[in-house]
Amino acid sequence: MVKNSRLTKVPVAMAVGTNKAGVWLGSIRLSGFTMLIMGLTLLGVLILAPQLRILIEQRQQIADLTAISTSTQTELDDLTKQRARWDDPAYVRAQARDRLYYVMPGEISYLVINDVTLDPNKRVQETSELKNTNNDWVAGLLGSFLVAGLGTQTPAELTPTFPAPTGG
């Protein structure tokens, strides 16, 4: 041992410059009682670890089943409400109008089909200023009238013919 100026004892290994962890590990004294407690602790962990794993898995399964039960109950409540709506004659009548296009006697049904899809990129943006067009609509109308009235094509030639569908 080397004595310090303050009269504290420092191990020779620390004075020479070895690492502190090695000195600390060397200074640990293990008794039989300490070894017994460490062994019992290790044995307890080994015995309880599988049981804890099973407990955690079961808790996870319970949480999953609870979530499934809650969603199923919500879906059942929605279906019960929907079934109750079908008991209302006004709702049944509205569904027959919307889905099956039924009308009450004496009513006239108008069906508007909007099968034209417009590309939003090709639409002309509205402006507040007036513009002159280069089209002469009167000449276009007169030309269309003359072509329709003075044409020599037969109606069969005017109607487009579609190819017959092939089976396959």
TrEMBL record:
Keywords: Cell cycle, Cell division, Membrane, Transmembrane, Transmembrane helix. InterPro entries: FtsL/DivIC. It comes from the Bacteria. The chain crosses the membrane at residues 28-49. Pfam families: DivIC (PF04977). GO terms for biological process: cell division. This is Cell division protein FtsB. It comes from Alpinimonas psychrophila.
